[in-house]
Amino acid sequence: MSWPSWLPLRDALRPLSAYGAPQVPAQASLNTNENPYSPSASLQKAITEAVSLVAADLNRYPDRDATKLRTQLAGYINELSDTKFSAENIWAANGSNEIIQSIFLAFAKGPVLGFTPSYSMHPLIAKTTGAQWIDGKRNSDFSLNTQDAVAEIIKNKPTLTFITTPNNPTGGAVTIDSIQTLADAAKTVGGLLVVDEAYAEFSQEISAVTLIANNPHVIVIRTMSKAFAFAGARVGYLVSDQAVKDAMMIVRLPYHLSALTQAAAQVAIDHRAELLGGVSTLIAARESIITQLHQLGLSTVPSSANFVLFSGFKQDAPQLWSALLEKGVLIRDVGLSGYLRVTIGNDAENQLFISALKELI
Ligand SMILES: Cc1ncc(COP(=O)(O)O)c(C=O)c1O
Known about the structure:
This protein is of the alpha/beta class. It folds into 2 domains: 104 residues, Aspartate Aminotransferase, domain 1 (Alpha-Beta Complex); 213 residues, Type I PLP-dependent aspartate aminotransferase-like (Major domain) (Aspartate Aminotransferase, domain 2, 3-Layer(aba) Sandwich). The chain is built from 12 helices and 12 strands. The strands form 3 sheets. The chain has a 7-stranded mixed β-sheet with strand order 2-8-7-6-5-3-4, sandwiched between helices. A 3-stranded antiparallel β-sheet has the order 9-10-12, covered by helices on one side. Helix 1 packs antiparallel against helix 8, helix 2 packs parallel to helix 8 and helix 3 packs across helix 7. The mean pLDDT is 97. The structure holds pyridoxal-5'-phosphate. The site of pyridoxal-5'-phosphate has 13 residues, from helix 3.
């Protein structure tokens, strides 16, 4: 991008372009790992009622600490992981991207290490916040090599080490034993281990939230955008020791989470059984898509998430991506040569994806 010379844009930002998957209309939108199931009519009504109550007070700022929402999120995590968190262990923001940014603002005083390919916003937010990012490597099958990762932590002494489990865009999960090993290494160098668990509800692995009580330098990032089917509302959160949460309150913007967002999210958490009801269906659909991709002669990377990275097609990835879009199927070219990523959709979307692919490969 060429910027006008009068614009005093920071040097580190000049080579960058705005992040974003193409937002184009398609019959099957399988590109951003959203949940395909929209809220039921009764949930829509409950949200509308809660929002209309709040509307009467929109002249006032919202609860800037979002205490009720954080208490509910603590309850949800305790239910899943048999932990004993309270609102003091939770921070909530406009999507987990804002949580990631706040972590950088608060803690990235030294180098930050991540293991690519992984969630591209981690290095991008490092750049936009002026942090030094170090690209650690993965095995050639994209799994995380715990011993190599420990060696990178010891060598680079990062203030922050990011891992994503299940990993986006590759899909594999890291075991709790490996996460503990990485946490031990991070502790040795005086750093924090940040575990991005955006897709945790789709995985069988034990959550890293269970490590926090004995490892206060472990931070876990979660979101309501994926399993919770609530991406449009923009709610992400972290689970951590209280000291980490207190630091988040220093870097947050005042009243960052609107009263409308808080009200809608509170209702969504109350209806979690319904919203999370789609998870088992999506896991079954993921397994079926993997089988069908194999029947087409394609290869897949093992996935514990709501998407699958696949390869083995004859075209290059951008060509196949465009050809699928012409047939109404929008998936994601994640910039890995020879690979494309498809999000698991509803039955009709999944069928359209497979039938379009059959005609193209
Ligand atoms: C690994 C990971 N973390 C965080 C996010 C951000 O999610 P949100 O800001 O919607 O909570 C995503 C979104 O795709 C993701 O894949």
